[in-house]
TrEMBL record:
Top-rank taxon: Eukaryota
PANTHER family named among the record's database cross-references: CONTACTIN, PROTEIN SIDEKICK
UniProt-recorded name of the protein: Down syndrome cell adhesion molecule-like protein Dscam2
SMART domains in the record: FN3, IG, IGc2
Pfam families: fn3, I-set, Ig_3
Keywords attached to this entry: Cell membrane, Disulfide bond, Glycoprotein, Immunoglobulin domain, Membrane, Repeat
Localization, UniProt: Cell membrane
Domain Ig-like: 32-118, 153-234, 239-332, 338-429, 434-544
CDD domains: FN3
GO biological process, one term: axon guidance
Gene Ontology cellular-component terms listed: axon; plasma membrane
Main localisation: membrane
PROSITE patterns attached to this UniProt entry: FN3, IG_LIKE
């Protein structure tokens, strides 16, 4: 064997190795058409391939150890040219690792090759030097069986990651070129997200998952034989944390445990590291005393006998060969005396006679303390037994069974943890036992009933709904809770409402049964149960009148039809039969434009016919498609189900019934008028081919001697006989018509043709400042004439102090002629402007200049934004409040001499994380006790709601830039009971629909 190995380097790419071989043997020669040949990228290391038992072929190749880089793409140049590339085929493969394979060689393969690599990220590339693939000169050989390359099958990338695209590649030598087949060794199907490409040699698995892992088999076959090889696919994934570490506050001399709970595939061993303030925790490197306190075991860090110096940020990092996950928490070692907060500990508890009360004693302390309940009325501490007692549960609750009026009074919860002691008092208010009312007391179902509303009410003697205990309604159907029934049948709602003229609060629970849920399976007893008692109602099926049959339509005109129907044969009008006696009928209709059924105007119709009913319907729209149906009605107002509807019936077309209205006109020039009007029959047409007949008079005649017909709602009239007078009167009239005939003619409209320009003049001009950049200009038109052409008004404002530079034009805006005021924007602050208004026409001619007025923009708005320093929850005597502090800013420019009537700050409160519009509150600087350290107190915020707050300065010139938002969720932030902050000087009360601002 003779083998020439060529090694070459690329500047920043992996080195390439290309191998050229000439195969010879003493016993026989391998013909060129059956020679095995390959070329591979390499990192300059070589390995032995081994031997082919059949052909005694031995060769040296270069291995490629680098993992697949998705940013590389490989190609091969051929024929010594940089313009020719090797094309892949069933015989030729360019591997995804860059290797070039030939299943068998041909004489044309004896040429020069070079490997080319391109990098998509940098859009650059490089190719190596050309080398020659030398083939022995022997006659064509015979076919041979497939032989899979020893490096195949291979998996790319070498470490497959879940969610990536994974490639399984297979190549075999053989003549003829082999075909390929992929299977799973375990007998399972190939993944659903897999695709076989590149002549069957590549199995691509998109979005690979753990279940796609396993042993895969590649089989190569041709007419001579079969060869196969297997490869095991392991899907890797970075670790994922199940529960993140959470911040903790713990007392001294206690034990804290942090657990890094993670998930990671068994195929990827993990390593867990712990850090304290960014430094690794290594117990072996700690002093002996510290080593006993810090214990690392598996994924758990335990700190025993905690000390204040242990306060730090602790972090765990879980990593494997694919990636890592991390979580951190702040551990604070601190002792706190017990503190009660108004957010969670109520001042008053309302309870009803005969019920039970369970009131937990919730406080905050480090370490946890011991709790004792005390009856403030008797001065005695409660025991763990009896009707009024203290429970030994986790929250040391106060328990009162079968509450009576004698239990009303104050109860104190005492907490002591060795660091300090605190107490909180709750007043137990006992309310009389209310009654439960269910309405209606009885409900009968008919086919015409579309929904049933059942209501359960309880009235409590409370001053406000916040003081009333929850009633806890529960609905039952035939002694089964509706919670266990299909939810599509019921719509349940509960709400509070104030009872008028009494000091009571009514809580109402309502369930709705929709038409789709009404049937015999819903007939029975519905009961409402609460902690105060129960009530019930019965739902029965009521007989309904029979449905009319044989509904027919005849005598159809443009505006009416006649309906006829047959009563059921088993009943007579006002007589007795198997169903209820019929008293009247309701006719319902729908149109092609509105597919919803609706009752015909006039309501219910009676008929004197005993067997056959009929009715003539008037006031229908012509040229419209209708459908009709009938319902029968009993004497007590119960309607039957609707009859079968009729086929679509078209009323006959008719002439337009309405006259054209709102005719408008304007001159285009001294001989042309543009006429416009409101269209008729926009939703439907009374007849085919709706159009308009426009008539007008020749000036100066008043006879409508000219006309034209147009299909649209505007037209330009050319006055061919217009005189040269400066003003000519034209009389207009418009009449709608269609193929049936003509409708009513509109009232005559008078228009004027004129060659005159505008005569009107703007007077009584007033300019008022809006803010620092806007002025509002008011004016009145005077000297208006019929015989003038006017298109609009030109509003012009010039700087008063700009006369030296020719009176610089700052604003020149056009408005419609009907306007008498306009707001000008984009002006400079604290600048005087002279504004005037001039009328103009379509030719650009202007009327007399208007009288100018002078206005001055306000001083600029604040240019800087405040900085929110603190947004916190703070305890008060009545419970809690939210305190907002921000930095003071200059509310006017230093160079400004303006005196502001209003200046201060605006607070914007967004309720919820997705609120689009905020609540806006204004604070005047004069109302602040300390303008250098502004602060506000916001009352009325709801517990567990999320709020975002921003602040901005304002003055008469406008509102300045907003501060960065600061957010808070009440109930998650602990009130700073020990805060030594100065009292806020401003209080906001926020309600659902009312904002009350109070200064203190």
């Amino acid at each position: 064997m003779i083998c020439l190995q060529y090694l070459s380097y690329f500047a920043w790419f992996p080195s390439l190795c290309t191998t050229t071989c000439t195969h010879q043997h003493h016993s026989h020669s391998l013909a060129p058409h059956s020679a095995l040949a390959s070329a591979r990228p390499t990192n300059l290391s070589t390995d032995s391939l081994g031997r082919s038992a059949r052909y005694h072929v031995e060769r040296r190749i270069c291995t490629y150890e680098q993992a697949l880089n998705q940013s590389y793409s490989y190609s091969w140049l051929v024929g010594g040219s940089t313009e020719r590339f090797v094309s892949q085929s069933k015989r030729v493969l360019i591997s995804m690792d860059g290797s070039l394979y030939f299943s068998y060689t041909k004489k044309s393969d004896d040429t020069r090759y070079a490997c080319s690599i391109s990098v998509s990220q940098t859009q650059s590339g490089q190719y190596g030097p050309f080398f020659r693939l030398v083939l022995p000169s022997h006659p064509q050989g015979q076919a041979f069986a497939p032989q899979i390359d020893e490096f195949q099958p291979q998996i790319l990338p070498e470490i497959p990651v879940r969610g990536q695209t994974v490639y399984l590649e297979c190549f075999a030598y053989g003549f003829p070129a082999p075909s390929y087949k992929w299977t799973r060794v375990d007998g399972g199907l190939l993944p659903l997200n897999s695709t076989i490409t590149n002549y069957g040699r590549v199995l691509r698995i998109d979005n690979a998952q753990f279940e796609d892992g396993g042993r895969y088999k590649c089989s190569a076959l041709n007419d001579v034989g079969v060869d196969s090889a297997e490869v095991y696919l392991n899907i890797h994934a970075p670790p994922a944390l199940v529960n993140a570490l959470s911040d903790q506050m713990i007392g001294t001399n206690e034990t804290v445990q942090l657990e890094c709970d993670y998930l990671s595939p068994k195929t990827s061993p993990v390593e867990i590291e712990w850090f304290r303030n960014g430094m690794p925790i290594v117990p072996l490197l700690m002093p002996a005393a510290e080593r006993k306190r810090f214990v690392l075991k598996a994924n758990r860090l335990t700190i025993k006998n905690t000390q204040r110096s242990d306060s730090a940020v602790y972090q765990c990092i879980v990593s494997n060969s694919v990636g890592s996950a991390t979580s951190s928490a702040l551990i604070t070692v601190k002792n706190l005396a017990p503190v009660f907060h108004g957010i969670v500990f109520p001042k008053t508890a309302h309870v009803v006679v005969g019920t039970e009360l369970r009131l937990p004693c919730i406080y905050h302390s480090v370490p946890e303390g011991r709790v004792h309940w005390k009856n403030a009325k008797t001065g005695e501490f409660l025991s763990l037994e009896g009707r009024v007692r203290q429970l030994s549960d986790a929250v040391s609750s106060l328990a009162i069974d079968n509450v009576s009026l004698a239990d009303e009074g104050a109860y104190e919860c005492w907490a002591n943890n060795g660091v300090g002691e605190a107490k909180a008092t709750v007043h137990v208010s006992v309310l009389p036992r209310p009654s439960v009312k269910v309405s209606p007391s009885r409900q009968q179902l008919t086919e015409s009933v579309e929904r049933v509303n059942l209501t359960c009410e309880v009235e409590l003697s409370c001053a406000d709904s916040d003081d009333c205990p929850e009633v806890l309604f529960d609905w039952y159907f035939n002694d089964h809770s509706i919670r266990t029934l299909p939810h599509t049948k019921f719509d349940k709602r509960t709400r509070w409402e104030k009872v008028r003229r009494s000091n009571k609060i009514r809580q109402r629970s309502e369930i709705k049964l929709l038409a789709s849920a009404l049937g015999e399976e819903n007939v029975g007893r519905y009961s409402c149960k609460s902690i105060y008692g129960s009530g019930s109602t019965d739902l029965d099926v009521r007989p309904t009148p029979s449905v009319p049959t044989h509904v027919r339509v005849f005598d159809v005109t443009s505006h009416s039809v006649k309906l006829a129907w047959r009563q059921p044969s088993n009943q007579k009008r006002r007589g007795q039969g198997q169903s209820l006696p019929v008293d009247a009928y309701r006719i319902e209709y729908r149109t092609s434009a509105n597919k919803y059924w609706q009752a015909f105007k006039g309501g219910v119709f009676e008929t004197t016919d005993r067997i056959i009913g009929s009715y003539l319907l008037h006031n229908l729209d012509p040229g419209q498609s209708y459908q009709f149906r009938i319902r029968s009605r009993t004497e007590d107002g119960v309607f039957s189900a609707p009859s079968k509807h009729t086929e679509w019936v078209d009323t006959k077309p008719a002439v337009p019934s309405r006259a054209v209205k709102h005719i408008k006109w304007r001159t285009i020039d001294d001989k042309s008028l543009l006429v416009e009007w409101d269209p008729l029959e926009a939703k439907y047409t009374s007849g085919p081919n709706l159009r308009y007949n426009i008539s007008w008079s020749d000036t100066p005649s008043e006879v409508l001697s000219n006309w034209t017909i147009v299909p649209y709602e505007h037209h330009i009239i050319e006055m061919s006989n217009a005189t040269d007078t400066e003003c000519s009167m034209v009389i207009l009239a418009i009449q709608p018509l269609n193929d049936i005939g003509s409708g009513p003619t509109s009232t005559n409209t008078v228009a004027y043709l004129s060659s005159n320009g505008p005569f009107r003049q703007a007077e009584q001009t007033v300019v008022a400042a809006v803010n620092s950049t806007h002025l509002k200009v008011y004016w009145q038109w005077n000297s208006e004439r019929d015989c003038e052409n006017v298109l609009g008004g030109q509003v012009s404002c010039r700087k008063v102090d700009g006369q030296a530079d020719g009176g610089e034009l700052v604003v020149n805006q056009s408005v419609p002629a009907s306007y008498t005021h306009w707001t000008i924007g984009g002006l400079q602050p604290e600048t005087e402007y002279s504004c005037m208004v001039t009328a103009f026409d379509q030719y650009g001619r202007t009327g007399p200049p208007g009288k100018a007025a002078v206005g001055r923009t306000m001083a600029p708005a604040p240019s800087t934004s405040p900085v929110i320093r603190n947004l916190r929850v703070q305890s008060t005597e009545d419970g809690f409040t939210t305190v907002l502090d921000w930095s003071a800013i200059s509310l006017q420019e230093d160079s400004s001499n303006a005196t502001y009537l209003n200046k201060g700050y605006k607070v914007y409160i967004f309720i919820s994380e997705t609120a689009a519009e905020p609540i806006e509150l204004s604070i005047l600087e004069s109302a602040l006790q300390d303008p250098l350290n502004p602060s506000a107190r916001i009352d009325g915020l709801k517990i567990m709601h999320f709020y975002s707050v921003q602040v901005a300065g304002f003055n008469d010139g406008g509102v300045g830039p907003l501060s960065s938002p600061s957010s808070i969720r009440l109930g998650l932030t602990t009130p700073d009971a020990g805060s030594n902050t100065r009292p806020s000087i401003l209080v906001f009360f926020i309600a659902v629909a009312t904002l009350l601002l109070r200064y203190i």
